[in-house]
Amino acid sequence: MASPSKICIITGGSSGLGFGVAKKLLHAGDWHVVIAGRNLEKTIGAVKSLSVGIPKNSKVSNLSAVVELSSQKSVTDYVDAYVASGLGPVDLLLLNAGTRNTTLRRNDQGLEETFAANHLGHFVLTMLFLERKLIKEPGRIVVVASSLHDPTIMGSFEFDFDDLDAKKLEAAGTFEGGIMYRRSKLANVWFCYQLDEYLRTKVYPQVIQGGRPLPITVNCLCPGFVPQTGLARETSFTQRIMMKTILPLFPFTTSPDAAEAHMVDVCTRPGLANVSGKYFDKKKKGEESPSSAESYNKEQARKMWDVSIKLTGLNQFAF
Fold first, then answer.
1. Which residues pair with 33 in a beta bridge?
2. Interior CA angle at 289 toward 287 and 295, to 5°?
3. Contacts (Cβ under 8 Å, ≥6 apart) of 99
C-alpha cells in the first residue's frame, strides 16, 4: 500500500468545516491528515469516521495529545508530541479551529478565551512549527478568518489592545461574545499579513532578494457564512434550530460543502503555490480579494504581532 506523500494538520478537524475539509483531502488521495482537537474521545471518533472508504494512499490519524488552543502550555505540549511522533514536516498547516463564547471565560493566563484560542493559540502553534522546521519547503499555512473581521459591517467595533482580558467590558456590563469573536478574526488577518512580512524579511530575505518565491506561504480566507457550523453551539435552542434549518435557505449563506471546497482550493490549488499574504473570500468566487481597510493598518497589525510576542514570551520572533 502506497504511503501518502503529503501531510496536513487541521486544527478543529474533529467536526464542522475542519472535518469536511479533512474528508475532501483524504478522498482526493495522497494525503495524511492529522486531526488536532481538544477532546481526545471526539478526535478519535472523527478519525475512525474519516478512515472509512478512503483511498489506499490516504491516511488519517491523531496524536495521543490534545490541543486546547486557549492554553499556551497545551499548544506547546502538542508541538512536543508532534515532534515525538516522528511524522516529520507538514505540507499544510490549516489553522481552522474557532470558538465563539456567549459568556465571558478566561484562560489560564487571564485572557479572554475567544481571543486566546482563535488567535494566540494559532500564533504559538505556527511559530513553534516554523522554529522547529516542522513545515516543508515548499509548504503552506492557511488561516481561517471571517468577513466579520471588518469593523465597519454589521455594527462597528474597535480592537482594544488594553482589554484583551475583557475586564473593561465586564465592568461596564457590555461583554458580547460576537464582538470578541470579530476581534479575534481581525487578529487572524493581521497575523497572516505580518507573518508573510516576517517570512520575507526575517526568514527568507535572500530568497526574496534573488527574485524567488517564498518557500513557505501564508494566506487567509473567509469560508462564507455557514450557519450549520459549531459556532452556534452556545446559543439558545431556538437560535440553534434557526441556524441549522432556516438560515441555510437564504441566498447570503454558504453551504458546508461549498465552504469546504473553497478551503480545499485555497489550501491546494497549484496556481496559489507561490502566492502569499493574501485574503480569499468565498463571496468573491474564491479568488483573491481585499480584506477590510482596518486589516491593512500596518501600525495596528505590527502592534498585534508585538503584543502576541509579549503575551506568549516568544521573543525570538520579534521584528
1. 8, 60
2. 145
3. 70, 113, 114, 117, 118, 231
For 137, the grid coordinates are 519547503
The model's pLDDT over 76-110, given as tens digits with 9 standing for 90+, comes to 999 999 999 999 999 999 999 999 898 999 999 99
pLDDT for position 263 = 97
How far is the C-alpha of 115 from the C-alpha of 129, rounded, in Å?
20
CB neighbourhood size of 225 (10 A): 18
| 282 closest CA partner among 265, 259, 266, 264 | 259
The CA angle 118-114-250, to the nearest 5 degrees, is: 80
- How many helical (H) and strand (E) elements, i.e. helices and strands, does the chain have? 11, 7
What is the dihedral sign for C-alpha 317, 142, 254, 48? negative
Residue 230 burial (CB < 10 Å; 0-12/13-18/19+)?
middle
User: Which pLDDT belongs to residue 156?
Assistant: 81
Q: How many CB atoms lie within 10 A of CB 142?
A: 26
Render the burial of 92-123: b for 16+ CB within 10 Å, e for the rest.
bbbbbbbbbbbebbbbeeebbbbbbbbbbbbb
Q: What is the CA radius of gyration of the chain?
A: 19
H helix or E strand, kind and range, residue 209: helix 205-209
Question: Locate cell 494525503: which residue?
Answer: 31
Is 175:164 a contact under the CB 8 Å cutoff?
no
Q: How far is CA 116 from the centre of its chain?
A: 12
Q: Which residue has the higher pLDDT, 98 or 236?
A: 98
Q: What is the pLDDT of residue 293?
A: 95
Between 2 and 19, where is the model more confident?
19
* Number of CB atoms found within 10 A of residue 169's CB: 17
Neighbours of 164 (CB within 10 A): 21
